Amino acid sequence: MNKEKSFILWFKDIGIKDVPLVGGKNAALGEMIANLVPLGINVPDGFAVTSFAYNHFLEKSGLKEKIAKVLEGLDTSNMRNLSKKGQAIRKLILKGKIPPDLAEEISKAYTNLEKLYGKNVDTAVRSSATAEDLPGASFAGQQETYLNVFGVDEILLAVRKCFASLFTDRAISYRQDKGFSHFDISLSVGIQKMARSDLASSGVAFSIDTETGFENAIIINSIYGLGELIVQGKVIPDEFIVFKPLLGKSANPIISKNLGKKNEKLVYSGKGIKSMKVPEAGIRKYSLTDNEILKLAGWILQIEEHFSKVHGHLQPMDIEWAKDGKTGELFIIQARPETVISTRDKNIYKEYRLKKTGKILLSGIAVGSKIATGKVRMIKDVKNIEEFKKGEVLVTEITDPDWEPIMKIASAIVTDKGGRTSHAAIVSRELEIPAIVGTEIATKTFKDGDIITVDCSSGGSGLIYEGSLPFEVLEHHLDKIPKTKTKIMVNIGSPDEAFKNHILPVSGVGLGRLEFIIASHIRMHPNALINYEKYKNSENADLRLLAKKIDSLTAGYEDKKKFYIDEVAEGIAKIAAAFWPNEVIIRFSDFKTNEYRKLLGGELYEPSEENPMIGWRGASRYYHPDFKEAFGLECLAFKKVREEIGLKNVVALIPFCRTVEEGKKVLESMASYGLDKNADKTLKVYLMCEIPSNVILANEFLDLFDGFSIGSNDLTQLVLGLDRDSSIVDEISNENDPAVKKMIKDVIKIAKAKNKYIGICGQAPSDFPDFADFLVEEGIVSISLNPDTVIKTLSSIAEKERTILGNL
Prior knowledge:
The chain is of the alpha/beta class. Helices cover 37% and strands 20% of the residues.
């Protein structure tokens, strides 16, 4: 068979080497059918109409010269010029007649597909440009796809439409800007059996986190019905994150599950598709089961491993999948190289940082990690894109590929709808401009001319500030960061920051706080969830109202305690996965009573204290009858992370433990909920050293616990007799006070003598370089820093270590 002169090639007969003939999409399908279907991965069969066939069509119909003439004088910066020329070319192609010999070949191939799948088999007809889906050149979304196409006449029409889509306005503009000739790029068309995802679910997946470049995560997005609505951005999908290194090695390495707003779906309708509303019960439910998530993740890892071998280097993949509602089977329907984040220089760490904050106007899903300012330009319809000016912030409901000519000149993009895999998100990543999607009300919040700052620098949640706020961009070359003998770790607040900071040159996490997870993701007092059933049917109207509020915040969960466990576990797991296999020290909740009262239902359970800073907090809550069950939920979350997800690098940290006897009670309480140091020899439990009694009785405390993490803020407060919440005595508070430093010096010496872990996670070394020098002199094992101080403090500590060695 002479492939180069073939009109039709079946997927089983093609591979990556055939990209010039069948395009990236079809070549990848061939690779998978030949190499991965035998391993158990389901890929629907089909065939490709080749680029040779496309060029045959152009030549026989005399279109090549006519198209070249229309393209004369093309100006992609002039929207009217671009639109007029694109429309003229598409009209020429759609009027062109497919040559009889090509039409006959397509007809025969479709008949053979019917023999495999049945009469009038339903197909997806997809464009596959011969330069698309190559590392460094992402043509994804530039050409069209037609779904639920059946019957020879409809197939031939869809093929012609695909040929025409090589000359959509966006495709012409994209090629021109990327320096590709309009005739060096040909088009192949893939005709593939459809999986009946209109009766189930479908989506996209990445074998890398596309926001941060974290390579150990598999991101799966899922909606009901056909997958087009994800890219169109009309729905926010469910999002699942799976930890690659533990796939097949632990019971359930799903580290995150986020319920999306899947209120619309696309289904079959005659010879076409239509949109339908999703019932409320469906919206409140995940569109994939855990078993399906793990099966897909396993396939995605196999696909990445195969294409990495093909390309000769790690090649993260962008994958489309579908679930057939008739058979219940999962299918991979497309795979292409991820071409944006994976091609960046991993040695360069860019840090965008606001110099000051302001009034927050809106939040949404952050795309990228940059900051931009600009003037709002509201555009609600693509026909008005000519109004847009370079450097403005595009605010709109959703975008599609027709918007790309103006997206490339925007300083930032903000949309009402869409998730991380919507069109706006995909294009923003490629253009390397910040975007905040899924805000829901951006078009109702802003007006033309508003000056705003779009901030995507803090992880998963993007913030929009009023006015133009100053910011800086710091660029660090990681290969120039010195190594230190002292272990440098990082403090992580919100789990959303973890993946973003995975690239920092640190040896794990010295402090992860549950308070951020509880305050931001749960927002409810744990006892309110424990007692939910009592409120639901209470005669008290206020309690019934509380139950309704709890319902609205726990969508998809009948068991409210399980919601709490899962959310806490998810937060811990994200942090632990980002820095795996290094030690990640997670502190149990250390809210004070006044902070717990602010949570939904908190006023029912929390006393009013005159000085909550030294009141009912930390260890004293964990065994108390009024809080022990709530603490148990935290323990069960830890247990899930360590035993079910398999992240054994998590270390528990007990805060504010006043007495040795209290320490024993806490360990007993932990053991009663399955965190038993005696039963699990891999489980480490550290104690916050932040009370003078911890230092005075350090030997006794260290007989119970595996080490100390010094909390310099509270230790300073209690050594100097201060109230940290009092602004009047604030100026006296100083970690450099000789009394505080003597306490720290003494406890470092004791811990090292007992061969126990001794680190510091307090604010002092982040704020005061000389304090970090003092810790190095005393031989502390680890120093944990805030992310924004890691790199500068590393250099300072390295210099200090050189000085100490030089003086020995």
